[in-house]
Design a protein that fits this description.
Elements lengths: L4 E2 L11 E5 L9 E2 L3 E8 L2 E5 L2 E5 L4 E4 L5 E5 L8 E7 L15 H9 L4 E3 L1 H14 L4 H16 L4 E3 L11 H17 L6 H7 L4 H12 L3 H19 L4 H7 L5 H12 L3 H8 L8
Parallel strand pairs: 1-3
Antiparallel strand pairs: 2-9, 4-7, 4-9, 5-6, 5-8, 7-10, 10-11
Helix pairs in contact: 2-3, 5-6
Length: 290
């Protein structure tokens, strides 16, 4: 079974934080977590972004800060995008000293770090500014790179357009023990919602009976297990309706629904429109084959 994978991050010996550029291999990383903060900038590519139990589209210009032990991954849709690129900066809360961010001058950064437990999305203007700063920073010596990175963190706190990705931060606020219990289930959903999802397999990941698991999952996420599955499937389907001209029947099956009429019924119930009406609303001019 797929589990949220822990990752060990080791900065170079001469640096206190890690800056890496990735090609499309970054988007093949499993749903994973680590003890470090992570700032991710998407330079090229599009698909689905998973932060905790939050799922959304991403494209070039996407920038997100995730907090420690918050599981995450970016998956390309379609999967083959060889020119996809990303920059990732990883750092610990005490990378410049245990009490540094406790200083009053750093209150805005400390506040941002606390919010990062839910994942923070920043707008394209912030992305452009930070990307320019990163390119300049990488041309400098280690001392000036450190100063440059602190300026980046402060710049992020001044962003006027940002969003917390997890509007119900119950998972982010769990103890590490509880996060390690629920994260494998979320990882299982990320990797399997387009396939046949098994309640028994999900429950087994927590070593619970199915009845106990259902109560536990609802308590943690405020959704039933199947409500979460359907949320993931509909989220994927809406992206396909907008970005492709595939027949609705194909989209239904590719999103994990096994019956087209059931897909229509669920879609209209949750979205307030039929799949075809939804497509027409957002993509006028597409060939809306059923």
């Amino acid at each position: 079974m797929i589990r949220a994978t822990p990752e060990i991050v080791q900065p170079a010996s001469e640096q206190s934080f890690l800056v890496r550029a990735f090609g499309d291999e970054a988007f093949r990383a499993p749903y994973h977590f680590h003890a470090e903060f992570e700032l991710t900038l998407i330079l090229k590519g599009k698909g689905k972004r998973y932060i905790g139990n939050h799922m959304a589209d991403f494209k070039a210009g996407d920038m997100v800060l995730v907090g420690p032990n918050l599981p995450h991954c970016w998956k390309l849709v379609p999967e083959k995008q060889p020119d996809a690129k990303a920059i990732v900066i990883q750092f610990t809360a005490d990378f410049i000293g245990e009490l540094f961010f406790e200083k009053p001058e750093n209150a805005p950064i400390k506040s941002m770090f606390q919010k990062a437990g839910n994942g923070i999305w920043f707008d394209n203007d912030s992305f452009e500014e930070v990307y320019a700063d990163i390119k300049a920073m990488q041309q400098q010596d280690n001392f000036h790179m450190l100063i440059g990175f602190l300026k980046i963190l402060y710049r992020l706190t001044q962003s006027s357009k940002l969003a917390l990705l997890d509007k119900e931060p119950d998972v982010a606020r769990l103890s590490l023990v509880e996060q390690k219990r629920i994260n494998p289930v979320l990882a299982y959903l990320v990797d399997n919602f387009r396939k046949q999802v098994s309640l028994n397999e999900a429950a087994a990941l927590t070593n619970m009976t199915t009845n106990a698991f259902c109560k536990y999952f609802k308590k943690i996420t405020r959704k039933t297990f199947m409500e979460m599955v359907i949320q993931y499937r509909l989220n994927y389907a809406t992206q396909q309706l907008i970005e492709t001209d595939k027949p609705v029947s194909d989209i239904a099956f590719n999103s994990g629904f096994t019956d087209v009429s059931h897909f229509y019924k669920v879609f209209k119930s949750k979205m307030g429109l039929s799949p075809l009406s939804y497509r027409k609303k957002f993509m006028v001019g597409y060939d809306t084959k059923a």
